[in-house]
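Figure caption, in words: inputs first, then the predicted bound structure.
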Amino acid sequence: MRLYVNIDHVATIREARKTDEPDPVQAAAAAERAGADGITVHLREDRRHIQDADVTALARSVRTVLNLELGAHTDIVRFATRLKPFQATLVPEKRQEITTEGGLALRTGDRRLRGAIAQLRDAGIRVSLFIDPSLKTIDVARALGVPAIELHTGKYANASKRRASNELRPNKALNELRKAAAHAKSIGLAVHAGHGLTYQNVQPVAAIPEIEELNIGHSIVSNAVFWGMEEAVRRMVQLLKP
Ligand code: PXP
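Bound structure (pyridoxine-5'-phosphate present):
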């Protein structure tokens, strides 16, 4: 299992003061020292946390690999094709949302998405699509010709919260993830997963054999406040071991 650490919220803290600390480049280096297999950042259209200059600096400094999350916006796709991160994960983006709320609503006839996939692929970037764990959506992802998908684990994560209502059932959501991962792998897609994963809920997802990569941000950065970035990543790496 590969762990890609999402460091957006290091930039969220910096942007709260519009100053120059904490530095995402330093956070990425600490995560890598502690065993992260990759660094993930989301360059949002509203630039609320990660800035273009961060992505440029990370593309130079990251020693593992950079996974750039982005919406299919012309300027950001163009920026990505110039920067050439190892991987680009296309995500849906709404300006008002607190975080990425659902997976991409995929349609084979979506010209904007098809164009973004083609541009990224032609630049030599591995393309992944962030989608809900629905078998139909997985088939559309396959038809769009990408090598990988990232399954949205938000529903499972919400159901696992201590304060979750009784209607939310973590086992049901986990079974959906299991079925989705098996189906995606059986039709040739690499399977990634992420969103809302924490030290408490990550292990059942990490145990799904078809999932090869997890993207985790909020929980790691939150706990880094108490433990430091290296220790927070080390503890997550430890939990992902079979
Ligand atoms: N994967 C994707 C596609 C995301 O958009 C995010 C949030 O930026 C994550 C994973 C990480 O989610 P979290 O911060 O809840 O761990």
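The pocket of pyridoxine-5'-phosphate is lined by residues 6, 8, 42, 69, 89, 91, 99-100, 130, 150, 194-197, 215-219 (CB under 6 Å).
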